[in-house]
Amino acid sequence: METGRIAGQANGAVWIQYGETIVLVTACRSKRAGDRDFLPLTVEYREKSYAGGRIPGNFFRREGRMGEKETLAARLTDHMIRPMFPKKYRYEVQVFITILSYDGENDADVLGMVGASASLVLSDMPFDGPIAAVRVGRVDGDLVINPTNSQLEESDMDLIISGDRDSIGSVEGHAEEISEAALLEALEFAHENIQGILELQDELQKKAGKEKQEYIAPVIDPELAKAVEEFAGKRVSEANHTDDRSDRAQKLDDVEADVQEALAEKFPESSKDIGEVMYDLIKNDMRRMVLTEKRRIDGRKVDEVRPLSAEVEVLPRAHGSALFQRGETQALCVATLGNKMDEKMVDDLRGKAFKSYYLDYNFPSYSTNEVSFPRGPSRRDIGHGHLAESAISPVIPTVASFPYTIRLVSDIQSSNGSSSMATVCGCSMALMDAGVPIKAPVTASGVGLISEGDEYEILTDIQGAEDFLGDMDLKVAGTEAGITAVQMENKIQGIRLEILEEALQRARQGRLQILKVMTEAIPASRSELSQHAPRIQFIKIDPSKIGAVIGPGGRMIREIETTGAKVAVDDDGTITVSAVEAEAAAAAMAMIQGITADAEIGRDYDGKVKRIMPFGAFVEILPGKEGLLHISEIDHTRVNEVEDVLSEGEAVRVKVLDIDNSGKIRLSRKALLPEKSDS
């Protein structure tokens, strides 16, 4: 890790290298503070194609907007560094992570996270770091720090864990049904190894760090704060004790409207400050309720799961569908089965790859009764989809045992927190409804935290307000056997391991309760595929004959697909035929077999006259294979004109007499005709 050689005008810049993977991270802030009521932090993660010795594959031949991998890496960094800024820091901050070199083995996402902290530590910004991150794998039972890509292929976990000197900051990753104890061991192992990276940043700051900006957070007039509390405090507490979310929201809106009107004359132009004080009143009262009354704003106990419902077969034409609801959060999940042509292509620094299983998450504005213009998948959509996809991945059958492309879609219909966890549950059920032989159903639960000093309370199955006003959002997915995915975001700087241990146990209890409801709706994968799903067959041909199956410009494969089947051809000669109707698949297979079959000398064929020439007729005996029926081989008697006996399109049975070295086929019709007597 070094600084000062490049990007010298940035507030902070580091060049960080691991193996031959090199990342440049810069941090800049605006010259003046804004008036936003949240930290205006932006993290950009960009992979330069030249880093992997590649040229962009798009039409423009230059890097475009962030891809999925880049978006996920940017989110990871954001989750790590955001809590390290002062609560009311209003300067716009941008962290830019640029991948300059990639060696194919050492991924750059963790380097970007470490570089982000280091660049902010070096800058003049009031960043309460350092903080650092490592990746943890487990190969043959042994934990590995920052495993290579090769090692990850053999690992049963892939976790990215950040932390400071005393606590864990963020966690994200997936695993092959590991226990809570194994996850805690990985967290502790990561925390131990983070310390050296923190020391490295400390040394760098001592040598090259800038003097920190003196930042004084905006202070609200104490008289105003007191007036708001006196007017609204009791009413806020009463509203927070309203179990129904809509009623509670309306009461709180009414309180704020009343306090704004009541104090407008005494405190003119203070509407925004009044709103901030109201926010703090609501937040503090909610947290007080949890810590002192052991009661949540919707009336639940701290370890209570919201009302659950689950059903399958909700869409008659879908291959598999499920509607899962937890409280007001509702996910409509659909499983669709396709063939190899439906695989998803991934193109990044690691090169092009194809995924036979993937999940798309959609969060439309109507799910929260809002209006917005749809602009494609957001960072939230990509992040939540990736988490759910990773959670279910360990139970997906191999392509060898189940030769289908599997696409899952989760459309959130209503949301009040934990929509990604509802996605895991709903998509797991949709797979079972489609007849996909998954290893086990996957369920998921979110866990929250309210803490004041040494006092804390863990909340099972948090809703939206508890996520927004709480200190932690821990999402855990898994089967009955173990954890398959985990994600933790914090509003505070870190969580102690002993609290995380308790939270993981609470998450497991919640998962098992949810699993019971899911299995009541559908106890296991259906024994038969959906009647609307395609049936897939395989045929292996000589790779040299692939061109014949495809045909000039794809003409032959298009002709095959007129049967109603879809055809995919691999370079090794494996051909996949998929069709909903068995007859269509059988017809396509017959055509492929005919195209790839070789004519045999001495064998009889039912052919079709394709062209008539003065010297004979060309007869198609196999798809795309023609032979010459010479005029002398048409009949035992002399034939003066070919048209006297044959016509184009006519079916004719012929025998293969010979095939020369160039592949030309010589046919005979008369060889199959009885010889005529002289009488």
End-to-end CA span: 104 Å
Low-confidence stretches: none
- Structural category is alpha+beta
Q: At the third CATH level, what is the topology name of the largest domain? A: Ribosomal Protein S5, domain 2
Largest sheet data: 8 strands, antiparallel
Mean pLDDT: 93
List the domain count as a whole number: 5
Can you put this structure into words, describing what you see?
With 679 residues, this protein is of the alpha+beta class. The protein contains 14 helices and 27 strands. It is elongated and about 125 Å long. It has 5 domains: 12-208, 2-Layer Sandwich (Ribosomal Protein S5, domain 2); 222-293, Arc Repressor Mutant, subunit A (Orthogonal Bundle), CATH 1.10.10.400; 308-521, GHMP Kinase, N-terminal domain (Ribosomal Protein S5, domain 2, 2-Layer Sandwich), CATH 3.30.230.70; 535-596, Ribosomal Protein S8, Chain: A, domain 1 (2-Layer Sandwich), CATH 3.30.1370; 604-672, Nucleic acid-binding proteins (OB fold (Dihydrolipoamide Acetyltransferase, E2P)). The strands form 6 sheets. It has an 8-stranded antiparallel β-sheet, with helices on both faces. α1 crosses α2. Helix content is 31%, strand content 28%.
